[in-house]
Write a structure and sequence with these properties.
Largest sheet: 8 strands, mixed
Bound molecules: zinc ion
Radius of gyration: 20 Å
CATH topology: TIM Barrel
Low-confidence stretches: 1-5, 9-16
Shape: globular
CATH class: Alpha Beta
CATH superfamily: Metal-dependent hydrolases
Strand content: 15-25%
Structural class: alpha/beta
Helix content: 25-40%
Distance between the termini: 39 Å
């Protein structure tokens, strides 16, 4: 499907404001690092960037030598709750893409995002397609999610997708999960049903993203024509035929390494909470999420090394990687965990500019959000100012000094 299947449109921040000039900072334009220069914001939008700019009369100048300006970060895999969008924005995440939620909650939070400059913007899959009793039905039993409709077979695909479109879903999530890596066996969608869902979604201009945690399911999803994978797998090293299938299908991949680390029993949340550059900004729910262990069953087959090597090989093969956290799954938190994901993407072999592109221009392009992810003049000034140079040290993205959403200062 072409790039016209877009998550764009929708929320316009009505509080957009702000004229200012940032001077002396390095600029990361969504693709590459530029030398120190100037960035002018007028009426909440990027107006110009250049080596030198003279501020228009009355426009305040921010001397930002020694700092770096990034486009607002995009987390391509989250699950929201009230307060999540504010937590995200404090950590420089100006857009969150939710991958399974109650549509009434999404409607409420999108309304909030349109009027609160202290909240990140939001797109959502709404209710994902899963088999009766399939993942995440356990979250209904635990009271985390209200009951939701499921898909018993290919014949239900059309009506399921039509209902999601009517609810305002921006993309379709499909769930291939039999509990192999969690140790909790559950029914899953068949390849035929996934194919029917993909057909129905593409016919309505929706992208399709698949939850997978095993290589077999990843292969099945790609074979059924999905546009993206919402996780990578932990059960096996990448097989050549997986890498070939991703290339052949031009599939984007949201590895969610920080969440996979927790699923593999090596959660990184506590270390993140102890980071002096992130810890002080945490609210109680973020801290609780970071300090939570993923319930890993002894029978689970889960090795983070498999996902790390898969990311490196996908990148070297030129495939599209998008940064996502799966916040608020155990061991993660909205906003701050994206900085851990950036760190892990670099550890997996991405150059720092490629890792940052995975959290800015790449998700904007892959998910059809043309008004963000770069410093393109005319786009809303979603910006993050960090102390230091993330090109040489990706953990510098944690040293946030200011965040703007649509030119409005959020921190
Ligand atoms: Zn998820």
């Amino acid at each position: 499907m072409d790039g016209s299947a877009a998550l764009g449109g929708g929320v316009e921040v009505t509080v957009a404001s702000g004229d200012f000039l940032i001077r002396g900072a390095r600029l990361f334009d969504g693709h590459r690092f530029l030398p120190p220069g100037c960035l002018l914001v007028r009426q909440g939008r990027v107006a110009a960037l250049a080596d030198r700019l003279t501020p228009p009369a009355g426009v305040p100048v921010l001397d930002a030598r020694g700092s770096t300006v990034l486009p607002g970060l995009i987390d391509a895999h989250v699950h929201v709750f009230p307060g999540a969008l504010q937590a995200a924005l404090r950590a420089g995440v100006t857009t969150e893409v939710d991958m399974f939620a109650d549509p009434r909650l999404i409607g409420f939070l999108r309304q909030q995002a349109s009027s609160d400059p202290g909240a990140a913007d939001l797109r959502s899959a709404g209710i994902g397609a899963t088999a009766p009793g399939g993942h995440p039905t356990r979250l209904v039993e635990l009271g985390v999610l209200p009951p939701f409709p499921t898909v018993a077979g290919p014949e239900e695909a059309e009506s399921f997708v039509a209902a999601r479109v009517a609810e305002g879903s921006h993309l379709l999530k499909v769930v291939l999960e039999d509990g192999t890596t969690t140790g909790h066996p559950c029914p899953t969608l068949t390849a035929d049903t996934v194919r029917a869902l993909v057909h129905a979604a593409h016919a309505r201009g929706l992208l399709v993203v698949a939850h997978v945690l095993t290589q077999a399911h990843a292969l099945a999803a790609v074979g059924a024509g999905v546009d993206g994978l919402a996780h990578l797998f932990l059960d096996e090293p990448p097989a050549p035929r997986f890498l070939e299938a991703v290339a052949h299908g031009d599939v984007f991949v949201i590895p969610t390494l920080t969440s996979l680390a927790a699923r593999a029993g090596h959660g990184r949340g506590r270390a993140l909470a102890a980071d002096p550059h992130l810890g002080p900004s945490l609210d109680p729910r973020q801290r609780a999420g970071l300090e939570q262990d993923f319930p890993v069953a002894p029978s689970a087959r889960a090795d983070l090394g498999h996902a790390m090597s898969t990311v490196g090989r996908l990148h070297r093969a030129g495939q599209r990687i998008l940064a996502g956290t799966d916040a608020s799954s155990p061991g993660t938190a909205h906003g701050v965990s994206l900085h851990d994901e950036l760190h892990l993407l670099v550890a997996a072999g991405l150059p720092t500019a490629a890792a940052l592109a995975a959290a800015t221009s790449a998700p904007a392009a892959a998910l059809g959000l043309p008004d963000r992810g770069t410093l393109t003049p005319g786009t809303p000034a979603d910006l993050v100012l960090v102390d230091g140079d993330p090109e040489s040290d990706i953990t510098r993205t944690r040293r946030i000094t200011q965040v703007w959403r649509a030119g409005h200062r959020a921190t």
